[in-house]
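Complex 204.
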Amino acid sequence: MQSVVEGALRFQREVHPTRADLFSALADGQAPEVLFVSCSDSRVVPELLTQRDPGELFVIRNAGNLVPAYSASPGGEAASIEYAVAALGVRDIVVCGHSGCGAMTAVAAGTDPALPAVESWLHHATPPKVAGASAPHAPTPAEIDELARENVRLQLTNLTTHPSVAAGLAENRLRLHGWLYDIATGQVHALDPGTGRFLALIDA
Ligand code: ZN
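Predicted structure with zinc ion bound:
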């Protein structure tokens, strides 16, 4: 923890003053254009991998970059999505999975009885066809990454059940994107809606 405290103090002393104009403007409010949904994994840092400044990404992070389908008792993800879309007016939503995801490993391997909250949460990551595809087993890296891609597709579908997202899509003021980030190479592959395949990210 000491290194985290030292980092915060170094940020105050050395980094914040160099971006005084930016932070002064941000003190008055935010206007991010992108909602970025990613995993809590310490190796996945949305602002780093997209090279964005503070104020540019509205971020939801949780185990497995999951978006529970909208329900009668909306939780933190639903509230954050609604705020980003309906209050902040983000134009794009990215659901970003990643290589070697521990949540996807748990989905494939079967959950640990010692982690009941994880088991409950990961139900949002288990589409029926994946759940029934094979018995729990120690997955290969390729299987984990394929599950991560399948999971991104599922979470994009879940996103559309949220009323604010559905309205934004119907009114053509919102776009959804599925990404997979590879930790070892830094590469991002993006879901091609036409083919359902993940293709290397290109400059739009
Ligand atoms: Zn993960």
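Residues 1-30 form one domain.
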